[in-house]
Amino acid sequence: MFLYLIYSSKRTFTAMSIKYEQSPQKYQKHISESSLSIYDRIEIGDPDLWIPTPELEILLDEGLKGLSLQGLPLRTRSKVVKQEVCRVLGYPVPSSFRRTQPRFPGQVFDIYVQKSNNLQIWNEEISPTRRYVIIRVSTDDTIERVKVITGDTLARFDTTGTLTQKYQARLIPQEAITELITSEDTDNLKSVLIQKSHPVLFDAFPTDYPSPEVLLPIAVIFERLKGLVDSQFTDVGFDQERNRGAQLHQLICKKLGYQDFRDDGRFPDIRNQLIEVKLQTSPTIDLGLVRPDSEEPLDIPKIDKRQIRHCDVRYALFYASTDGEQVTLTHFFLTTGEVFFTRFPQFQGKTLNKKLQIPLPSDFFA
Length: 366
Known about the structure:
The chain is of the alpha+beta class and about 375 residues long. About 20% of the residues lie in helices and about 20% in strands. Strands 1, 7, 8, 9, 11 and 12 form a 6-stranded mixed β-sheet that branches. Strands 2-4-5 form a 3-stranded mixed β-sheet. A 3-stranded antiparallel β-sheet has the order 10-6-13, with no helix packed on it. A hairpin with a 3-residue loop joins strand 11 and strand 12.
């Protein structure tokens, strides 16, 4: 049996402590002062007005929690929730809400109010770059939790077969056990790679946003991660893919120089180095709803005024064997999303159904 992992980026920094201004309230303040409406488009990554997904979740969870919807008809309940969302984010409440897709075009998100974990999306496909605000309501109709995820993440929760991942590729090993598919990052990313030296340890978290001070070039990442070939870790079983993948993530983070392992389940896996990881049990690489070479903007703040795209992400693929007890890494591949398909051939996936019912995990709102 074989396993594949997509992941990338590594190089250690001398314990540098780089903190970013990530207070969610700063976005609320800037939006309130801008006089923008929820229908005014904002450039993804705008450092003042675009609210990244983690900060959007914090604002909405703190701002909506405890709101009572008891006794409200469904249509009125929907309007009240949208009004409160406007207030929480600093937007003026419109006199009436337009029938747009998504409902909040400025921040590119839709709202779903849920009592159960069965999410229903009607008459449209899941959009990989759209955010989905899922609001948990208690039995007494009080908001108790808000989660925000992108469409690409949402698609992973489908276990019913109503969804199929659109993009897939195939990993075909050759003689070399390590391959650097491209020795340079994308032109867009190279423009923000300013560090000439690359220390051994750094103090950022893997889930922090990237910055010019911490980003490693792809060639440096390759040199650091290729040493993981022949590494082993416990195979916890194919039904525990998340836990098995976490073990590999920990090995990678340590090699990269992180002193703490964190994984929040968002794309890309190691956001601080723009690295995506996938651990697979077949030659088929599942890529979800977004092509690696997509030039769509990534949902992170701009880096040195540069908007980062999906194709700028680095992918590290680890090919592995398992005897059922131990997983052994046997091959390593590193590439950018931009040239991903030049080495890993794409094959066509199925299309999405129009009526979608997605069972959310039991611990989704935990």
